[in-house]
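pinging the channel bc i need a second pair of eyes. not urgent but kinda urgent?? the chain im working w is below, pasted from the shared doc
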Amino acid sequence: MGDQNTLLTTAEVRHLLRRAALGPTPSEVDQLAGLTRGQAADELLSQQSKRFRPGGRDFQKAHDKWLKFLVKAKRPLQSRMTLFWHDHFSVNFSTVNDVNRMAEYVRRLHVHALGNFADFVKDMNKDPAMMDFLDTSKNRAAIPNENYARELQELFTLGVNDLLGQPNYTQDDIVQIARAFTGWRYDDNLAYLDTDDHDYEADYPERGPKAIYQTTGGFGGGGSDFTANGEGEPEIDTVVDIILQHTDSQGANTVARRTTHRLIEFLCHDSPPLAAVDAIIAASGFDSNWDIAALVRAILVHDVFYETAGAPVGPSARKSVKWPIDFVVSTMRLLKMKVKGRPAWIPGGDYISLRDHLENMGQVLMEPPSVFGWNWENAWLSSGTLLARYSFARDIVSVRYDNPLFKPELLMSLSLTDPGDIVDAVTDALVVTDQITGTERQALVDYLTDAGAVSSLDLTDEYTRNNKLHGLFALVMQLPAYQLQ
């Protein structure tokens, strides 16, 4: 058993950077070498990042701006957390159809990524892209629209059921919360309340008092009144405050448990034990301070995060499938390749844009398929999406004469001649040496030697480098160990 004072091994540093950053580059590994779990987590959390808003004249420009920012990210943990919240507070361009509003939405995700969760939810209540996506801007006093009230509970905070399978809210809770959001509009990316179109109790006495959670949440038979701070503008913040006090069927804070569970799934693996969830909440104080950075730190020092660090891919190793954006960005960072051009494209192989590669893999930034975000883990993998990942690896190592250049000499010594040493140098460069099996390593050696027919290689020879060495990089990127983390 370890804790925040446990010294990290090199394998654990790589594991930390695979899961909590955007790929363990050699310089980042060196920076964290010799630190404890707590010190390494603090280092990742303390790295400063400039403000970011992926604007542009069109969707392609905004998408590529975000992609370039990720490849060059100086604070990769914040960038990775922004991706998590993009899935959690899911909004897509196809519905919003406005680059400026989507850029403002991403800016909010970036600002709050490691901030206060209560403030985050309240800010998302008033985000114009979200207001369009879930119809808040169409919510009228005469006929309240329930879309946002439902997803605020189902997806953003409580979940339909708690972690024990018991319901967290009722249809009446949705109806009542929808009343709080009537009349909210936006102008020039600023939300405001149109008081002439807001549901006031005096105007609709037949709808009853604005009370929620009369049968769930631990509030008692009368529930909780969200006009406690006054009707009108304060209501939507008061609703969030009440939701954050909701307790589950065991009396634990419902939102804290669900959010922690989802973050462990994102940073570690699926199906984390409830005991680990509760221990991490207790260590971070998340159920009272709502500090996302403190919650992330508690995860990054817990045994549940490191339990399979350094273990090769296999039935007993709890691994997580890389998201397509993580696969693409971490590869570009590891290989020291830049995103250039309009559209950003790879001048090799199929000569297609990075956005097309991502679309073929099943994920485009600012285009989650629905309010539920993307499906994770095995849902990322199919015959088509795996082929797309393999094609991306092939295209990357096919680049010869244009930016972004693939230069293996930047990653390893070309003076190596022994096939086994060359394989180890390439797997080291791609940071999977401790993740592959002996059988996989031998298969890679056999590829270099034509099954033993060649005893040594001259990597200074252009033909050998362009065929065998570049091909070896592609094969390693196509291994299960490189698709998982």
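so The first strand starts at residue 184 and ends at 187. and DSSP finds 24 helices and four strands in the chain. — does that match what u expected or am i reading it wrong
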